[in-house]
Amino acid sequence: MNMKKTRSFKLLRHCERSAAIFLLAIFFIPSCYAEDCEKGRQLYQQARQASDLNTAVSLLEQSIEQCPDVTAFYDLGKANLKLGNTQHSIDNFDSAYRYWDETNTRQGGMILGRRAQAKLALGDIAGAVADVDAAVLATQPTIPGWLMQVRRDIDLNPQRQNLSSKAMGDILSMKALQVRGFTPQLDIYVLFDWDQDMPNRAGVSQLDQLGVMLNDQSHSYSEIRIIGHTDKTGDAAYNMNLSKRRSVNVKSWLEQKYKNIKSKLVAVGAGETELKYPGNSKEDHQLNRRIEVQLIK
């Protein structure tokens, strides 16, 4: 009888200890986490007030150690980018994107825009194009000025205007992962001489790479839409007609060389109705003259 009582007593004491540990987990751990996050917020505010970037980086790293936060990761990425720590900045923006609240579309776009800036600095043009296009889409209609400048810097990069077929495919794949319900789209800088509707030698080189990529992925799409765009110089009606002629000629060129995609190609002209850059500089006009490719499932 005494043995049974002893066992019952031990069992009761065990249950009491388990209950105490459970209550401790419920009340103490969240309290500790709250204290850590409060300390993290204090360190974050100190980092924002720091006049020295290295000091700011150190404080932000300490803040994240206490309480990982999307804003702290984002600011750490910007600071490392300014210091020339490009790969570290990409890692920081990757972390910010993981902690990003998906209901805040604009915040996600800002992270992708800064990551595009870092990837451009690192020479990852395909990654930069995919990120910046998704960023612009996420921040519309009020796209930040710095983001427009990042996209412009990317588009003016010589590698951007001379993409390989692999780079084109990589851009479309990355954009599909970043934007839900995304219609695969890519701007190709097929070069035309002024007021001409046939691509010049550099333009034909880009068309060849485009054809290889489309041929490889043709089984995934029912329609390949070729859209011609012009700059805003000259008469709007004339530009509309010019853009149609250019898209038709690009379509014909692709049909002749890549017969597998012939039945899926559709030519469309947009004229100056969808300017990528609203300015009046020579570079703005150059970047607005482009061929857009849309792949329809």
Number of strands: 4
Give helix % range.
Answer: 55-70%
For this structure, what is the CATH class of the largest domain?
Answer: Mainly Alpha
Give the biggest sheet: 4 strands, mixed
CATH topology of the largest domain, by name, is Serine Threonine Protein Phosphatase 5, Tetratricopeptide repeat
CATH architecture term of the largest domain: Alpha Horseshoe
Please indicate the percent range of residues in DSSP E strands (runs of 2 or more).
5-15%
Question: Could you characterize the architecture of this molecule?
Answer:
Strands 1-4-2-3 form a four-stranded mixed sheet. Helix 2 packs antiparallel against helix 3, helix 3 (70-82) runs antiparallel to helix 4 (86-99) and helix 6 runs parallel beside helix 8 (165-178). The protein starts with a helix and ends with a strand. Residues 1-16 and 19-32 have low confidence and may be disordered. It is of the alpha+beta class and 297 residues long. It has eleven helices and four strands; from the N terminus they run ααααααααβαβαβαβ. The protein is 65% helix and 8% strand. It has helices spanning 2-49, 53-66, 70-82, 86-99, 105-122, 125-139, 145-156, 165-178, 201-217, 236-257, 282-288, and strands at 185-188, 223-229, 265-271, 290-296. It has two domains: 32-154, Tetratricopeptide repeat domain (Serine Threonine Protein Phosphatase 5, Tetratricopeptide repeat, Alpha Horseshoe); 183-296, 2-Layer Sandwich (60s Ribosomal Protein L30, Chain: A), CATH 3.30.1330.60.
